[in-house]
Write a structure and sequence with these properties.
It is a single chain. The chain is α+β, with helices and mostly antiparallel strands and 223 residues long. It is built from 8 helices and 6 strands. Helix 2 links the parallel strand 3 and strand 4. Helix 3 crosses helix 4. GO terms for molecular function: nucleic acid binding. One of its GO terms (biological process) is DNA integration.
Length: 223
């Protein structure tokens, strides 16, 4: 990232595997103590202690301090293979989405990207996911957020809102959130099954260029 206010130029991204909720910590330097503070403050104190953390092999993660932190909280710490970082497939997929949205919203901001970051995160958290048919916000909190477009244009959520019945509606949504999460998990599994089926039928072809190098193409199989 371009250097922002306070010499901040790094961003540590955390993604929940199931809900796809994204959080980001901006840093001037990346050290284990700052990572530990971020995980404790923004993850553990808000959502609970995670079962596991999967990360790259950066020194800030593969350090005695961070390992002790995870061990103390009984968090399983796993590392993606440095030779094959794509083995951490879900994180790779989420990172592509994050990079695309961040590029669209932050590229022109240059050093002012810190001010634009919350807007980019909001877009990710409230965007409908094809795989789960839900938004990260709804799977995390049990109800949809009122987004900016609903302020200018009437929506079902804003037009049916009743202050008197709001408490009961929220309680009902919280009662149903586990059912919604189970359904989202089924959609996720079905979505992954389709991709595995497609990948199993892909036939790679190689074409030799004039320089003697080879280019690999994935061709969709005939149906």
């Amino acid at each position: 990232m371009p250097q922002g206010k306070g010499q901040v130029k790094y961003a540590v991204v955390v993604v929940d595997y199931f809900t796809k909720w994204v959080d980001v910590e901006t840093l001037a330097i990346i050290i284990a103590a700052r990572i530990e503070d971020f995980i404790w403050t923004h993850i553990c104190c808000r959502f609970g202690i995670p079962y596991a953390i999967i990360t790259d092999n950066g020194k800030q993660f593969d350090s005695d301090l961070f390992r002790q932190f995870c061990s103390h909280l009984k968090i399983n710490l796993f590392f993606a293979s440095p030779a094959h970082p794509q083995s951490n497939g879900q994180v790779e997929a989420i990172n592509k989405i994050i990079k695309k949205i961040m590029k669209q919203q932050l590229d022109e901001a240059k050093g002012a990207w810190l001010k634009k970051l919350p807007k980019a995160l909001w877009a990710i958290r409230t965007s409908f996911r094809t795989s789960s048919r839900e938004t990260p916000f709804s799977l995390t909190f049990g109800s949809e957020a009122v987004i900016r477009v609903e302020i200018g244009e009437a929506s079902y959520q804003t037009t049916t809102f009743s202050p008197k019945g709001n408490k009961a509606q929220l309680a009902l949504k919280l009662d149903l959130v586990e059912e919604r999460r189970m359904q989202a998990n089924l959609w996720n599994e079905a979505y992954k099954h389709v991709f595995r089926y497609y990948d199993s039928r892909v036939k790679p072809r190689f074409s030799k260029s004039t320089t003697g190098s080879c280019t690999k193409y994935h061709l969709r199989p005939r149906t």
